[in-house]
Specification:
Layout lengths: L17 H30 L26 E8 L10 E6 L6 E6 L5 E7 L2 E8 L6 E7 L4 E3 L3 E2 L3 H8 L3 H12 L3 E2 L3 E2 L3 E2 L9 H12 L2 H16 L9 H30 L5 E2 L6 H10 L3 E3 L5 E3 L1 H14 L10 H25 L10
Parallel strand pairs: 1-7, 1-8, 11-12
Antiparallel strand pairs: 1-4, 2-3, 2-5, 5-6, 9-10, 13-14
Helix pairs in contact: 4-6, 5-6, 6-8, 7-9, 8-9
């Protein structure tokens, strides 16, 4: 067998010899390093999530600009007017942008024709705060879209001076409104019932209103017709010594109207003005039956003063006495009885007033249609 010297190269084996062995060792070490590196990469990839490959966009990315549709600014315009349609100059219009910190407030002062215009306004919700001298503040809200130009409807401001005049309306105006309502009150839709107040907060009457209410009662057609009917009944029953016939009826009619005239003017106008008292009956409508009945009867001898306090009814009592005394001037002599008849008629008048008040409290309201 052939002996091979390990130090000598073998021509049949290219890897034999010192150089070949060194080359083989180097190749093995390189493979070992590559294998080690590969194992390390595999270990790292197993512990961390897989990463997506980064792809470069085929087109360049376009950044948003001020001219892009979603940020395109808009305009807000309008006109400020008063209640009469006139333009309001130098009104202050504030446009806050609460959605953009820090808050930016833009202010516009209206021109002589009341116009205002905000340009270059960022789209989104908006709220205008409007103020002007002698006018109430007002706010108008809306939503502005990108690139939109809004023309708001005319914005009307209410005058503070007008509101003050309405709040401080005079008591005379309020009483006029209440009396106007009372003059529409008719029992069974035709009998006048002007001297009853159903208002929960009645205002005292001034002298002119007391006179006007009395005259309205005296000239009411129904009052004239009812007086004629009473004169006919008196003539039929021969109540007074005037006999029968048209002339006698005329005297009865005149005497009856004279009673109504003196009683209404003196008891409901002249004396209430003198004593500063209210001639109306003020409907109670609440409480027990006994309390309401006592209230109605008591109102025959008491009344409210213009100071809204209860006091003796000097106007009604003295008015009845004066009317009874004056009737002695035109009734037949046989039907007069001096002072005793005068006081008797006045007492009967007071009693009749108490009975009428009971009807007012419990019956008349139900018989009065369209009552407010």
């Amino acid at each position: 067998m052939k002996q091979v010297n390990p130090s000598m190269p073998d021509p049949n084996n290219p890897t034999s010899g010192p150089v070949s062995r060194a080359l083989a060792t180097t190749l093995r070490m390189r493979r070992l390093r590559h294998l080690t590196l590969l194992l390390c990469l595999l270990a790292i990839s197993a512990q961390s999530p897989a990463q997506q490959p980064i792809q470069k966009p085929s087109l360049p990315v376009q950044l948003p600009s001020a001219s892009s549709p979603q940020l395109l600014a808009g305009k807000i315009a309008g006109t400020i007017i008063d209640s009469n349609g006139g333009s309001i100059a130098e009104a202050r219009i504030a446009l806050p942008r609460s959605d953009q910190p820090p808050v930016e407030i833009r202010v516009f002062i209206t021109s002589p024709d009341g116009r205002f215009l905000f340009s270059n306004v960022t789209p989104g919700p908006f709220s205008l705060a409007i103020s002007a001298t002698n006018f109430m503040d007002q706010q108008v809200s809306g939503d502005l879209h990108a690139g939109e130009s809004i023309e708001l409807p005319a914005i009307e401001l209410r005058s503070t001076s007008t509101l003050s005049a309405q709040v401080t309306a005079s008591l005379t105006d309020i009483a006029d409104a209440q009396v106007s309502q009372e003059e529409k009150q008719r029992v069974l839709a035709f009998i006048p019932n002007f001297y009853v107040s159903y208002d929960s907060n009645p205002v005292p009457l001034d002298p002119a209103q007391k006179f006007n209410l009395a005259l309205r009662t005296l000239v009411d057609p129904v009052s004239l017709i009812l007086n004629g009917a009473l004169a006919g009944i008196e003539q039929t029953e021969n109540t007074y010594a005037w006999g029968q016939g048209a002339q006698s009826y005329a005297k009865l009619y005149a005497a009856g109207y004279g009673n109504m005239l003196t009683d209404t003017l003196l008891g409901n106008a002249v004396l209430p003005i003198l004593f500063k008292q209210d001639p109306r009956y003020f409907y109670k409508g609440t409480g027990s039956i006994h309390s309401r009945a006592f209230y109605a009867i008591a109102n025959a001898v008491i009344c409210k003063g213009d100071n809204r306090r209860w006091q003796p009814n000097y106007s009604g009592i003295l008015g009845g006495l004066a009317s009874s005394g004056l009737s002695n001037l035109y009734y037949p002599a046989v039907n007069r009885d001096g002072a005793s008849l005068t006081f008797e008629n006045a007492a009967l008048g007071t009693g009749f007033t108490a009975i009428a008040n009971l009807f007012q409290e419990f019956v008349v309201r139900k018989l009065t249609p369209h009552l407010h």
